[in-house]
Amino acid sequence: MVGATVDSNILTFFLIFRNKYRFQLTDFCDYMVPGGGAQYTPGRLLYLDEWGPIRHAANVGYICLLAAKLGIRSRAYRRFAHGQLSYMLGTDVLHVFDGRGYRKVYLTSMKS
Predict the structure, then answer these.
(1) 1, 16, 25, 105, 108 from 60: Cα distances, Å
(2) 33 φ, ψ to 5°?
(3) What's the number of domains the chain is made of?
(4) What contacts 64, CB < 8 A, 6 or more positions away?
(5) Which residues pair with 103 in a beta bridge?
(6) Which of 28, 29, 32, 51 has its CA 20 to 30 A from that of 76?
(7) Model confidence at 111, in pLDDT bands (50, 70, 90)?
(8) 110 in a domain, yes or no?
């Protein structure tokens, strides 16, 4: 139910701009960004649960992007969301999640 609470806090803050909801949203995103206490994989992906870690990272990234759009720690939250999205799209060439685990990837020539 944490996700539903965060979503409702975003909506409430967006509609009525009450600081109570801003602080809850800020606390949530501050915990999720690197150094805030949340667990990360060796490839720097936010790791909240064994099942669907990329789904959870995408949802948290989206929530923090909404917070950034509302003017809450815009630079830090955008950087966090960009890092998570880059990992999901394969831009991070150091580590790849292949469905079974994480492995290092070394850049090689595309020739067969």
Answers:
(1) 14, 22, 11, 26, 33
(2) -70, 155
(3) 1
(4) 29, 32, 33, 77, 80, 81
(5) 96
(6) 51
(7) very low
(8) no
Q: Residue 46 carries which DSSP code?
A: B
The pLDDT tens digits of the residues spanning 30-80 come to 999 999 999 998 888 999 988 889 999 999 999 899 889 888 999 999 999
* 63 is a domain residue: yes
In a domain, 59, yes or no: yes
Q: Which domain holds residue 90?
A: 2-104
Q: Which SS3 state, helix, strand or coil, does residue 62 take?
A: helix
Say which amino acid occupies 47.
Answer: Y
**Dihedral angle sign, alpha carbons of residues 97, 28, 26, 30:** negative
Confidence band of 112 (pLDDT split at 50, 70, 90)? very low
CA 67: distance to chain centroid?
12
* Cα distance between residue 51 and residue 65, in whole Å: 23
Q: Which residues contact 84 (CB under 8 A, 6 or more apart)?
A: 45, 46, 57, 58, 60, 61
